[in-house]
Specification:
With about 325 residues, the protein is an alpha/beta fold. It has helices at about 5-20, 45-60, 75-80, 90-100, 155-165, 180-190, 205-210, 225-235, 270-280, 285-290, 315-320, and strands at about 30-35, 65-70, 85-90, 115-130, 145-150, 175, 195-200, 215-220, 240, 255-265. It has two domains: about 30-120 and about 260-320, Periplasmic binding protein-like II (D-Maltodextrin-Binding Protein, domain 2); about 125-260, Periplasmic binding protein-like II (D-Maltodextrin-Binding Protein, domain 2, 3-Layer(aba) Sandwich).
C-alpha cells in the first residue's frame, strides 16, 4: 500500500465513523396528526378550529393539526369519543348528554371516551333570523313555519327544541330543513324559508353577511318569561342578551345560550394533552384573537366544572402546574 493509498483509506474510515456517529440524514421524528372537529363554515366554530390548529402547529412541533368540517356539536362528540377526531368543539350540555346516552344520543348510547380540555371558552347563542315582511316577531311565532335548523346533528337543534317547547309546540310543528348557516341565509333571501337558525357565538358570519344585504330582517328573540322557563327546566341553558350593536338591530334581543367547551379523546397521551393545553391556555391572549367570541374567556373559566364531564389527565396536569386547579 502506498502512502497516498493509506491516507485515502484512513480518510474514508474517518468519514464512515463520522457518519455512524452523526448521521447526515437522520430520520425526522414522526409528527402526530391531530384532527379538530369543528362545524361547517358560516359559524364561529370553524374559525375557532382553524385558528386553534394554526396555534398548535406553531407551538407544538411534534403535532400536525388540521381543522375538519363536521355536523357540529352532536357529531363532534361522536367523532371524539370514537377517536375519529382527537380534539373537538362542543356545547357543554351536549357533551353531558353524550356521556349519559340521552337526548340526541339515545340511539347511539353512551359515548364514554370524551374528556374536557377547556371549559367555557365561548358561549353558543340561539339566534333565529326572519324577514320583516314575514310578520314573524319571536321564536314563539315559528309554529307551522318553514325553518332551517342548521346542519343535521348541530348543537343548535336541542336549543331550538327547548325554546319551541317553552313556546308550547315541538320540532314536529315546524317544517324543518337542515343546512349550513350560509345556505340558510341564502334560502331566506330567496323566500324559500320563513326563518333560519344560527347557533354560535355572537357575531355569526352568516348574520353579518345578512346585515350587509339590502334585506329588512329581524333577529328573533324569546319572551323573557320563556327564557326563564328554559333556564329552570333544562340544565345548561341561560338567559342571554344579544346587544343591538352586534348586527345593527334597533334593540337588544333576549334569547338562550349555553357554554361551549373544548374536548379531547381520552386515548390521546397525557404528555401531548399537557402540551396542547399549555399552548391553548398558557397563550390565552393568542387564542382569544382567533375570534371575537373568545374575548371574554379567562384562564379561570377554562377549569369551571360542567355537568360532571371529566378533565383529561394531561389537562389536569397543566392546570395544577399553573395553579388553576388544586
Amino acid at each position: 500500500m502506498t502512502k497516498q493509498t493509506g491516507k485515502l483509506a484512513l480518510a474514508a474510515a474517518a468519514v464512515a465513523l463520522a457518519g455512524a456517529l452523526w448521521p447526515s440524514q437522520a430520520p425526522a421524528a414522526q409528527k402526530k396528526f391531530i384532527t379538530i372537529a369543528s362545524a361547517r363554515p358560516g359559524g364561529s366554530w370553524y374559525i375557532t378550529g382553524a385558528g386553534w390548529a394554526e396555534m398548535l402547529n406553531k407551538h407544538v412541533p411534534e403535532v400536525e393539526a388540521k381543522v375538519e368540517q363536521s355536523g357540529g356539536g352532536v357529531h363532534n362528540n361522536k367523532l371524539v369519543s370514537d377517536g375519529d377526531a382527537e380534539l373537538g368543539i362542543s356545547v357543554g350540555r351536549l357533551t353531558v348528554l353524550a356521556m349519559e346516552g340521552k337526548g340526541p344520543f339515545a340511539k347511539t348510547g353512551k359515548l364514554p371516551n370524551i374528556r374536557m380540555l377547556a371549559s367555557n371558552f365561548s358561549t353558543g347563542v340561539l339566534q333565529f333570523a326572519a324577514l320583516e315582511a314575514s310578520g314573524i316577531k319571536s321564536v314563539c311565532d315559528l309554529k307551522g313555519k318553514r325553518v332551517a335548523l342548521g346542519p343535521e346533528g348541530g348543537g343548535g337543534i336541542p336549543a331550538a327544541m327547548a325554546a319551541f317547547e317553552a313556546c308550547g309546540f315541538t320540532i314536529k310543528d315546524v317544517t324543518a330543513s337542515y343546512m349550513s348557516y350560509e345556505q340558510g341565509k341564502d334560502s331566506l333571501l330567496d323566500r324559500n324559508l320563513d326563518a333560519f337558525l344560527n347557533y354560535a357565538a355572537v357575531p355569526v358570519p352568516a348574520l353579518k353577511a345578512l346585515e350587509a344585504t339590502p334585506a329588512t330582517w329581524r333577529l328573533l328573540g324569546l319572551p323573557d318569561e320563556k327564557t326563564k322557563e328554559v333556564e329552570a327546566k333544562v340544565a345548561g341553558y341561560i338567559r342571554y342578551i344579544v346587544p343591538a350593536a352586534a348586527y345593527r338591530r334597533p334593540s337588544d334581543t333576549v334569547t338562550i345560550a349555553a357554554p361551549n367547551i373544548l374536548v379531547v379523546t381520552k386515548d390521546l397521551p397525557e404528555d401531548l394533552v399537557y402540551k396542547i393545553t399549555k399552548v391553548t391556555i398558557g397563550r390565552l391572549e393568542e387564542f382569544k384573537k382567533i375570534h371575537p367570541a373568545h374575548v371574554e374567556m379567562t384562564k379561570e373559566d377554562s377549569v369551571k366544572p360542567l355537568g360532571g364531564i371529566p378533565f383529561h389527565p394531561g389537562a389536569i396536569r397543566y392546570y395544577k402546574e399553573a395553579g388553576l386547579m388544586k
